[in-house]
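seq as requested:
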Amino acid sequence: MKKLIAIAALAALTGQAQAALFHFTGNITYNTDVVQINFNLANPAANVRVWTDSFQSGINFDPITALWNGDTGALIAQNDDNASVNSATQTYYDSGFALTNLGAGNYAFTVAAYANFAGNNLSDPFNYAGNTPIAIGDWCQPASNNCSDQKGTFWSVWLDGVDNASNPNDPGNNVPEPGSLALAALGLMSLASLRRKTK
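struct tokens:
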């Protein structure tokens, strides 16, 4: 049993050095707000996913997302309405990317309310930058077919297959979701501890 515990503990520790699943949430206030999540890859990767799952079939605002080179600020890709990144949690106006060829380096993922499209560089203004900010609850959203039924302010971003991720506006929320192997190891250690106590 001690060998099994040691193997499980070692597996849990080595799992922390691999790519992880990160989850960030929050609320925007205005139609001009932009959420930025930074992440990096120590090595090239063929299985990185970044996505929103906060639209919830119309409960919250329609997100538009963009992927950026974190060092140069260059726009890599922009997306609106891709609910196929994680179809188990996303609904029709959610957005994101499934990246099959992403080099090692630093990146940024941004979320804005549709149609606050990004410029060519992260330092460039987004489409709504020159507009007077309007509270999400008071704004007739372009994707809405009923301006008297406005959407919520909640956003939710997931990153899967990245080494580190951070929300610069919430530095205390940078802990990865526990990996399944680490959870299993913790469970085995707890069972072993209980078994020892009952003897």
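The two ends are 14 Å apart (CA to CA).
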